[in-house]
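Researcher: First entry.
Model:
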Amino acid sequence: MIPARAAVVAALTTLAALLILACSGPAQSTRSLRSIKKGPWKQGYKIPAGWVQYKTRFYEVQSQAGLEKAKRLGKHMEAMFRVYVKRFRPTKSFPTKKYTIKLFKSRGAFRAYGAPPGAAAYFSSYDREMVCYDTGKWFDEPKPTGPITGGKKKADDPLAAAAAAAARARYKMDILGAASHEGWHHYFSWYVGSQVQLPSWINEGMGDYFYTARPMKVKGRAMPAKLGRMNEQRLSTIQFAIKHNKHVPIAEFLNYTQSDYYSNPGICYAEGWALCQFLLHGGNKKYARAIPKFIRLVDTDTNMRAVTKGAFRGIDLDQLEVDFKAWVMAQSLDGQKPSKQPPKESPKKKGPDQGS
């Protein structure tokens, strides 16, 4: 028989050991996730347990969320690559190296890998990869059918719970939309091929513009996606900002640095999306040429102020401000339809064969 004091010591020792194991588990998981090779996995690299690698023409998807989701993400990004190319035709040959995408199975794993707080996805030109996680929301999945009625319901009413869940889902980040956003950063970085910091209004604004894109099969030279859909997460914010005079004046906003943009992210991200949406789909042909012209100019010029001035030459920025605010306040999510496709501006140099 074990003496009482010895039994207590043994019990405490066992408890301490269990606590050490419990505390060391997540740390070991974090260390193992951070040890995963960044960027492309070359032939011969030992793929970590629980991961799969799936390659398409332009992408290498490294997935912790299984092969089926890797294929869906790869298929979507191939379609979006065609959209980027169609919208902003490059003047150089396509890259021979595949773009790398890491898909984590959960937000916890995504954060343990080293993702920035608050992000649903990110692109690192240094690591040569875009990184995202399975948010649980994929727009390629069929939506639940059946109406959800309104009215005041009891807290335990299943209809009220369903309505609340639908409201939360509306603002939940869609993984394919997030990938489209980061894929634009990937494409734009390759397109420009410069380490000069790009203006956030167009870099982030066009990312959020592509977030709502819905790829589709088309014939001939038509745009292979529905573009110009409203961004639910941004519209209400920019409307509130304009209504309360909290948005950034356009003339100032166009010259915002990344640090300026990030200092007020809620409003700046919303305004960046709204400005790009307005310029491309507001119905003014002169305004619609500003973004394609900016993309064309920045291909050969790293002076961003000069590029911005050239892109908006002939446009009265004070009048643009008035038109922009009026357009924003007139928009609605109810019964939205995709806007007309924006007019394309042909590049001065003929681009390479884009393939099918």
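Researcher: Second entry.
Model:
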Amino acid sequence: MSSDRKVTSKQTYYQQHLIWKEDIVPQQVKYFSEEFGDNIRDTCETLVDLFHCLFAKDIIHPLMSLDSLKMVYYSYFHSIMTYGLIFWGNSHHSNIIFRLQKEIIRIIVGIRGRDSCREHFKNLKILPLQSQYIYSLLLFVIDNGDYFKVNSEIHNVNTRNKSNLHLPISNLSVYQKGTHYTGIRVFNSLPSQINELYHNRSHFKRALKKFLYFHLFYTLNEYFSCNNI
């Protein structure tokens, strides 16, 4: 999968770093990501309007338990928000959709528009968008291990990062923001006690969810900063 040669052009980008069996050129990948993000954003905006209609007038809200409200959230908003998330979660669309997610959380718990949602995410056991992106991305990495190599497979130097995934060299922002490159960065920044579990999917998922529910990252920068302290 990986190569030590530097990626220097869009033509060689998918030749050297293809993670799908289909032959997709970078322009198509960028278009695909934009189309995904646009459609998800539009659908989420419609769902927020629907939630306002259902709950803002306190007609249905008082009649439903918190568990029922969460079920409505997961059935409608969450299922749309997470669709194709690994492709658009690192794009500009994610900021807009995260604001919509927080608006839904405020509707569910009945707080004002400028009140913080962080504690309510924790109480509801709902992951903020970027935490959900991290979760989905890491499951993609461990489920597609054949597309990734560890540093020890690339060179024989015995360093403390020898068990990390090998990060290809690239100056292309479309690649750096993509699923493969970001997935490697996110995986390599995991606490060692979690990434050591990647051979056992169920244990890895359990430890990862516990970690993400504890920190509730709002941005990727929060995640990378947390694990560099």
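Model: Note on the second entry: Residues 14 and 25 are 6 Å apart (CA to CA).
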